[in-house]
Design brief:
112 residues; alpha+beta; five-stranded antiparallel sheet; 5 strands; 22% helix; globular; DUF2794 domain-containing protein; DUF2794
C-alpha cells in the first residue's frame, strides 16, 4: 500500500494564513504605530506550519517584531505569539488582541 503525503490528511491546509478579522486587528495596530513614527514597513509570510506578519523600522533590515500564528499550538500555549528582534517570545496566547497589547504599550509615552 502506498500512501501519498498529505493526500490522506485533507484537514491539513497547504499553507497557514491570517484571516480577514485577524488582519484587521493587526493592521489597525500597524496604522497607529506608523502614525506615531515607530514602524515603516511590513511583510506577510504564509508558510506551511504558520503565518507571520513581520514589522520593520526600515525596509532593508531585520524585523523589529514578528506576529506569528501557529494553529497547532492553540491547545497548548496559544495560537498567537509576538516575537522580538532577538527571537525572544514577548507574549503568547489564544486571543490576538490580548497578545498585541505588549506592542501597544510602546505607543504610551509620558508627556512632560
Amino acid at each position: 500500500m502506498t500512501v501519498q503525503p498529505f493526500e490522506s490528511f485533507p484537514h491539513i491546509p497547504a499553507q497557514i494564513s491570517f484571516d480577514r478579522r485577524e488582519l484587521q486587528v493587526i493592521l489597525s495596530l500597524y496604522g497607529r504605530m506608523v502614525a506615531a513614527g515607530e514602524w515603516r514597513d511590513y511583510g506577510i509570510s504564509a508558510l506551511r506550519d504558520r503565518a507571520v506578519f513581520s514589522v520593520f523600522r526600515r525596509t532593508a533590515e531585520n524585523p523589529l517584531y514578528r506576529i506569528e500564528k501557529h494553529p497547532r499550538l492553540r491547545m497548548r500555549q496559544g495560537m498567537y505569539a509576538v516575537v522580538g528582534m532577538d527571537g525572544q517570545v514577548l507574549k503568547r496566547g489564544g486571543d490576538l488582541k490580548t497578545v498585541l497589547r505588549v506592542l501597544e504599550r510602546k505607543l504610551i509615552r509620558s508627556v512632560d
